[in-house]
Amino acid sequence: MAASHTPAQKVVEILHENESQFEHDQSSRLTPPDTPTSILDDPLDADNPSTPCQTQEAPRSNPQSSHTLEFSYDLEIEKDGISARLVEFGRGVWSVVYKATTRWVSDAPALTPPPSPVASGRILAVKVPLRHDAEPVLAAEAQVLSQMAATASADKYSVPFYGFITASSSIVMSAIPLALSTHIEECALRSKENFSTRTMLDPVLSMPCWTTLAAQLIKGLNWLHAEAGVVHGDIKPHNILLRRRRISDSSNSAEFQFEALYADFSSAHSISLEESGHLGGVALSALTPPFAAPELMTVSAMKSPGMSTPASDVFSLALTLLAAATGDLLLYPGTSNMQRLAMSREGYRVLDFVRSGHHGTRVPRRGLVERTIVPAVVKTPSERIKTAEWLDVLSSA
């Protein structure tokens, strides 16, 4: 069974239900988790050492930004057939993502058509704020997604965005059921169960798959920075979703079976804001050790409002690719969270740290993984490789 609502009715009811549940949960928890999860983040990620650390300010809507794409379709939020509870893809401190379907087009004419057609009955993901102070976070994210959606090839590099429901600050997007973090863990487990000295020097994804993934993500980041004009701000395996490719019967079974798409732009901002100096209320909202660039993790950076940059995105993607090679989402080999955090603050030494751990063989010296990672983790941000040049490094390896 599915409960049919207009977008405004649905989201207001859900928001009220979520706020009541949040207040109830908080009565038994002195300190809430630090960050929202992405569509498919495990609800327990708040207790994971890789959970983002919040700075003092969250991003707010910028009145100078372009028009936000409105969602003009009716929705049906799916319910579990047994418990009649709303079906969730995931949740965090700021938001919860529900499974929904479209059933018909609303009578209200849309000012701007969706960038991607929304077929009747299509499964969607609806990201709804859990509490009122999360509304500006999702509103700012929707503005960034609208900017991206207006750029050619958006659906090739990021999770398709279908619009924003203003009444509840809710984001409607395509439902993609696999996160890169989950895929890495699955590949690491298979690699451990089928250990072979023949492949112990290769990425856990396999070298062909890792190379394809790296090319997809570097191309996507180049598009994000150069074409869409957006800095992601929180790149990590949990914020990359994998859409299964259509593979022909003649294709090699060893090929990477997915298209990697960037997701969760709650920490993103437009590059034009930084260039114009109109930062307004936009501030760095989340950092995720071990993937955050070290310059963003200094005491001074975390005490004052700051912004992620294209260079910090490059660093975060490099560590994401390193995790895809080693199979270890914690990356650093420390025995405690504090040890790993200390290593994260010296992230430009990441290869030395990784090689001292159990997964160091996956990154052989002068190998493809090392040659891809090294120019992206330089200590000085301005000296890190640019995305267009990064593609050349990968293709020439």
UniProtKB/TrEMBL annotation:
GO terms for molecular function: ATP binding; MAP kinase kinase activity. Keywords: ATP-binding, Kinase, Nucleotide-binding, Transferase. Residues 17-27 have a biased composition (Basic and acidic residues). Residues 17-67 are annotated as: Disordered. Its EC number is 2.7.12.2. The keyword Cytoplasm does not apply. It is an enzyme of class 2 (transferase). The keyword Transferase applies. SUPFAM superfamilies: Protein kinase-like (PK-like) (SSF56112). Gene3D superfamilies: Transferase(Phosphotransferase) domain 1. InterPro entries: Kinase-like_dom_sf (IPR011009), Prot_kinase_dom (IPR000719), Ser/Thr_kinase_AS (IPR008271). Residues 48-67 have a biased composition (Polar residues). It catalyses: L-tyrosyl-[protein] + ATP = O-phospho-L-tyrosyl-[protein] + ADP + H(+); L-threonyl-[protein] + ATP = O-phospho-L-threonyl-[protein] + ADP + H(+); L-seryl-[protein] + ATP = O-phospho-L-seryl-[protein] + ADP + H(+). Residues 83-397 form the Protein kinase domain. Belongs to the protein kinase superfamily. STE Ser/Thr protein kinase family. MAP kinase kinase subfamily. This is mitogen-activated protein kinase kinase.
